[in-house]
Amino acid sequence: SLLQRGPSCSVTTGLLVIGCLLLVLCGAWLLGAVFWLHNPNQQEHKPPEACSLIPEAWRFDCYPERGVVVTRELCEARNCCFIPASTASSSASRPSGKNGIPWCFYPPEFPSYSVVSLNDTLLGQKATLVKEVKTYYPGDILTVEVEMRYETDKRLLNHKLFSIKITDPSSSRFEVPISVPTVANKTESPDYIIELSKQPFGLVVKRRSTGAVLLNTTVAPLFYADQFLQFSTSLPTQFIYGLGEHRSTFLHDVHWNTLTMWARDVPPTEQTNLYGAHPFYLAMEDGGNAHGFFLLNSNAMDVVLQPAPALTWRTIGGILDFYIFLGPDPGSVVQQYVDVVGYPAMPVYWALGYHLCRWGYDTSNSTWEVVKSMRNYGIPQDVQWNDIDYMDKFMDFTYESKKFDTLPDLVRDLHAHNQRYVMILDPGISSTQPEGSYWPFDEGVKRGVFIKDAEGKTLIGKVWPGLTAYPDFSDEVTHEWWYDNLKMFHNKVAFDGLWIDMNEPSNFLDGSTSGCPSNNLENPPYTPGRRLDLQQRSHYKHTIHLGFMGSSAFSALKRIVAKRPFVISRSTFPSQGMYSGHWLGDNRSQWKDLYTSIAGMLTFNLLGIPLVGADVCGFSEETQEELCVRWTQLGAFYPFTRNHNAISVKPQDPTAFSPLARTAMKEALLLRYSLFPVLYTLFHHAHVHGHTVARPIMFEFPKDVKAYGIDKQFMWGKSLLVTPVLDPGVDYVDGYFPEGLWYDYYTGDCVTSKGEELRLNAPLDKINLHLREGSIVPTQAPNLTLWVSTGQPLHLVSALSQDGSASGDLFWDDGETIDTYETNQYAYIIFSIAQVLSFMFLFCLFSASFYGVKEKPSRVLVNSQDAPFTYRTNKVSSEFLLLLFF
Ligand SMILES: *[C@@H]1O[C@H](CO)[C@@H](O)[C@H](O)[C@H]1NC(C)=O
Ligand SMILES: *[C@@H]1O[C@H](CO)[C@@H](O)[C@H](O)[C@H]1NC(C)=O
Ligand SMILES: *[C@@H]1O[C@H](CO)[C@@H](O)[C@H](O)[C@H]1NC(C)=O
Ligand SMILES: *[C@@H]1O[C@H](CO)[C@@H](O)[C@H](O)[C@H]1NC(C)=O
Ligand SMILES: *[C@@H]1O[C@H](CO)[C@@H](O)[C@H](O)[C@H]1NC(C)=O
Ligand SMILES: CC(=O)N[C@H]1CO[C@H](CO)[C@@H](O)[C@@H]1O
């Protein structure tokens, strides 16, 4: 029978292990051939009934290896069920992610672990699991330990967190060194119910209030082999978000969709793993509850979504350490997640201004010309950047002394205009300079900061400067060396922030100058499904890099500038939000990329990295004027907004376009600058409470299923709804408005929506922005820099709800001192209107407008004094404007 232990599969895996990754295909082909030779007379036979009873949507893949044509023989050697799928679109071989229903899948009785002992602990329970028979992956671990913790969390102190850690008691395996808070107390009244199945081992987690089954791991066997760890769960919903970094819609497709996570340098492409790895998902349940799931593991992995709906985690190292967050609303799931991985840093104020960059400024003078031209046209700009052009032979901590002769002067001039300077740095350190001529490398060797190869020699790869060594940022010694380098460079060029790139890390060689060693780390028995057709640009061994370069840059900068550090990173990992923001990589100047940037921005807000945006106007390829205008309008609402361009294409800064386009871009940026108090306050809530900044509509309307898939619109906090134009040649846009009153931000015109799509006017110079009823937003007169505009008086815009109430808030401090909230050097003001005209101002403001005042008031009293006001009305709205002079 199928379940009988077949012959050992060591021959099979032995073949697979041979050679580098690109040989996997070939190895797999050999494998098929070998089996065919050995079993030439295998006859067709009917699968047992247990197999045919499993619905296709519930098949858990028993043969996930890529590029293998899975035959009945191969499958049955694993004691699995083999039934070709019914639809034509499915196929036995799955060269890329979405190829459908597996033909080879686990039978219900596939051997797995059983619980042999179970004890109570301080925080929960601990169990020992034992499996009787080895499976086909080498290094199968037959005894594992499961620790279940019913925790209260660090800051939130609620009862909505449950975590499980599965380890090998006989040896210590790699654990991700991020500091997850140690929690003090066991939860007495959790929001969940845990059911443990002992044989086979399985775990069911239910939401106590609704009975929804959030996790059920009995749906497929648990694997815990040295380089193959896998478990599956049913999902209560098809609405799954998160799981970065991928280029996809915001809502993931659960139809046999494999999302691979392995940080890698590749221009954003569908169905491939990109620069960052974030094993966290958020799920919307029936009825509007939400929960989250986080697997704390940094190895290359696959996450498989299937229509049951169900999900499989498949990783090739480390341990299984996971957390479930019970919400119950989507915003609190994110709060509970960042409570574990770390709260986002409070950005320095100018981080929220307009940033300008390109690859291909030939000289510091030409960089400077653009800055001057921006000033001449009165277009806001806070920060000027340089890409690798500024470096001498692309080497870190140098600048090209001829073409970039005036770089220090440019930086001084920026500072004189309250503007800032940011430049790029890569992790790769040139290793081929004559001894004594390049301190970073010589000193790095001396201090032993570089990553070594298997033989203990400095590993040499290749990046922009040619051959390079890679600093090991997980080592404290490296942080000191990195700081010393930055400090010396800062004495020459007084930069204000850092852009860290290529830190996946990227490598133009396969492995190193001496290739990739033939060991089981480089050639794991199972390779997660990244694209095999591209050059292999990262090493398996270097997973540990993730995140550390960001924290190193953050702490060095903190020491050098003694203000809040500004760091933007390409590669990211959970907890990175504590140190840096992120840009969405090397996107193209295409309308499609304009659209997908919204999903990228929303996903990173879910992942605790709210300071995020795509390259405005697109990076590679020539942009077009109309696209660039629309992108600048959307970009005005990215939490981080930077226009960045590739080399050898036309300039795309706002001054490069026609007066009409230039003016439209300027207006969009002025709008952003006027909303700075709102944005800054949202970042305060991200930093202190783990809130999102740019937010999907469904976060505010979790019961509105029509909002679950929306990724063409989004909100800033709970009050502002942004509806950008994402298509060429149109002067209107269709947008979804959840039930309620919505006010046009510019005119105060009001629409009442029943939860429907509305067509809005959208000429080239307009981005639609609506205020949700019941909100008050603080604004300021914009100016060329945030330094100037943040000195302007406040103007409150209030959008009254149907019963005449509204509220809003403002966080204010000096914008740059470290830890102002933590050390009580800030003001926090709540604006609230219970009934029109009986509110208190707690703040010295200049003016306020109120949308939705139904009748003209006869008198207005401010601090018991009559105050001047104006009132206007038309058929859709009324505006009441109060001018206050203090
Ligand atoms: C549970 O306690 C028993 C008796 O003290 C011990 O033998 C066993 O190893 C414990 N099991 C676990 C999983 O800690
Ligand atoms: C843990 O419980 C004790 C006793 O109830 C309480 O004093 C303490 O504050 C709790 N600690 C946390 C972190 O909740
Ligand atoms: C969990 O999954 C198993 C296997 O599919 C199923 O038999 C069981 O009913 C499920 N449990 C719950 C609570 O849904
Ligand atoms: C940059 O401008 C300065 C001042 O005009 C000039 O002295 C210098 O030669 C210029 N540098 C280059 C590389 O053109
Ligand atoms: C900036 O402020 C100055 C002085 O207050 C003012 O003259 C100028 O018009 C403002 N610039 C913009 C772009 O609003
Ligand atoms: C504008 C655009 O295409 N953005 C995509 C760029 O790439 C990131 C991943 O790095 C995606 O998440 C974005 O959607």
From TrEMBL:
Gene Ontology BP term (one): carbohydrate metabolic process
Record field: transmembrane: 12-37, 826-851
Keyword terms, alphabetized: Disulfide bond, Glycoprotein, Glycosidase, Hydrolase, Membrane, Transmembrane, Transmembrane helix
Record's subcellular location: Membrane
Alphabetical list of Pfam families matching this protein: Gal_mutarotas_2 (PF13802), Glyco_hydro_31_2nd (PF01055), Glyco_hydro_31_3rd (PF21365), Trefoil (PF00088)
Family in the record: Belongs to the glycosyl hydrolase 31 family.
This protein's name: Alpha glucosidase 2
Species, as recorded: Oreochromis niloticus
